[in-house]
């Protein structure tokens, strides 16, 4: 007798003798524990990535706010005298508050494994909030850049350097929130409507 006769034939879906389905692991149909754990890992990775991006946005927004708020060097070198810089400061403050709230919510949800909001509502708040704040950040930065460039043509000093630094931090916050909005959009699109 050869080895091939000793082994029972492989069953694909049903056993002809018992008419019962074989285990999912044996059939390779994709049902079982492995696909579920892959989904959980992907969701966990997306949640952690979103948290990291919001943390970066919080850091950059806070830096933009602090740098612009402290940009007072006397005479014409005071940020209050320029509408564009006041706008940048206001949006940096708004972005700091939004990202701080979102970061705290995500840390709470990751640590307790309990949702503060319904999953679909949370995904919508994340997506639309990230998009709105990201748009406001890029708008405020783009309004402050021409003013800073004109000032730098006349004199390059600590005031213009601080302004440029605040604009850069605002732009980095925009990039972080734009990437976070991509993740939020993916999460929103994969939500079931049932």
From TrEMBL:
It is found in: Cell membrane. Residues 1-29 are annotated as: Disordered. InterPro entries: CASP_dom. It is a multi-pass membrane protein. It holds the Pfam family CASP_dom. The chain crosses the membrane at residues 51-70, 85-104, 125-145, 165-186. The keyword Amino-acid biosynthesis does not apply. Residues 1-14 have a biased composition (Basic and acidic residues). Residues 46-175 form the Casparian strip membrane protein domain. Keywords: Cell membrane, Membrane, Transmembrane, Transmembrane helix. Homodimer and heterodimers. This is CASP-like protein. It comes from Salix dunnii.
């Amino acid at each position: 007798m050869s080895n091939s006769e000793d082994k029972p034939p492989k069953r694909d879906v049903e056993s002809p003798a018992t008419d019962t389905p074989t285990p999912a692991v044996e059939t390779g149909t994709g049902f079982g524990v492995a696909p579920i754990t892959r989904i959980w890992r992907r969701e966990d990775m997306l949640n952690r990535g979103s948290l990291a991006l919001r943390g970066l946005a919080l850091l950059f927004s806070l830096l933009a706010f602090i740098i612009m708020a402290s940009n007072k060097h006397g005479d014409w070198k005071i940020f209050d005298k320029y509408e564009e810089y006041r706008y940048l400061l206001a949006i940096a403050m708004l972005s700091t508050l939004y990202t701080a709230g979102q970061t705290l919510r995500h840390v709470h949800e990751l640590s307790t494994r309990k949702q503060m909001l319904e999953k679909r509502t949370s995904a919508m708040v994340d997506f639309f909030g990230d998009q709105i704040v990201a748009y406001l950040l890029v708008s405020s930065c783009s309004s402050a850049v021409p003013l800073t460039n004109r000032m730098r043509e006349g004199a390059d000093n600590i005031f213009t350097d601080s302004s440029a630094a605040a604009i850069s931090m605002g732009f980095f916050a925009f990039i972080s929130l734009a990437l976070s909005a991509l993740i939020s959009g993916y999460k929103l699109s994969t939500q079931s409507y049932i």
